[in-house]
Amino acid sequence: MKVVQARNVNDAVVKGAELLKQGGLVQASRAGGTIEYPEPVCTVYEQPLERVLYDGVRDANPFFHLLEALWMLAGRNDVAWLARFNQRMATYSDDGIVFNAAYGYRWRQQFDLSKAHGRPFRDQLTTIVDLLRKDPDSRRAVLQIWDAEADLGVASKDLACNTQAMFKVRAGRLNMTVSNRSNDIIWGCYGANAVHFSILLEYMAARIGVETGVYRQMSDSYHAYEDTWSKISGIADRFEGDPYALGEVAAYPLVGDPENFDADLFHWLDNPPDALSLQQWDAEMARGAGRNPYFLAVATPIYNGWFAYKRKDRAAALAWVERCAATDWRRAAREWLERRWQARVSAAAE
Asked: Which of 11, 138, 158, 285 has the fewest CB atoms within 10 Å, counting from its CB?
């Protein structure tokens, strides 16, 4: 097994691309030709909360990444909510209504845990929180994602790539190891996975009552598709420094009140803030962002900035994004919007 030791996702993607460039082999797959490393690769994130990727060529969509992570954390599997931020997601659903292998649903609703609880219960996350609160030394905190009944040999458009996550408290910090059967390092490993699973880790650590530790991602098939490899194959040559390491951006704490976070998360998702005006948001912030400020101070500006962009209201989109309290997401969203507006200007000039 090869190990990519990295500070964060910006460090990891540079090192990971170089690894694949030097040792990758051509490998056919169901979805097209790939360049695959010949053995499993473990990416180790020392600062996993530094989760936002900055690279204009890779062009990761920060709006989609953040909002999908919150949707996952709520245990949902519905297509409609998520497809508003990425229409292509609907093509991965078998029926256009739900996803077969939505990670959050697998975390919180897929499996029957009544044997452990003595009553109907399905939330693996709460079960693991309770386990590690009672026994911080436990090595039994395993989050199951792969479901043999729903995945093994099933002809579905959506099968779980990440198969399980293991949590372990050591020296007062929660470490997480994620197992992945098939990891596209462009869209998955150093894209969505770095965001979704680091948010899961931060959430779990807050609920357990410990600090966030290291995030390890073990990828059995570590690959890039040939038709998208160019997005990161030359990233080392254009890398100008990590904004986190340079002190230009920082993460914003996800959880303020762990005991009420789920209730606030479910409420925010079920009551979208798109009717909120900039003036109303300013007034609410002046009164205080609540017990879990992330929803009003970070998620709402990103959510409303997206829909302002979709309405082609550039001024409103920027105004919302600039209100985001998380400097890392703020910068990424601003740069993503600017790339699109610049592309429109260039296209109009041709």
From this structure: 138
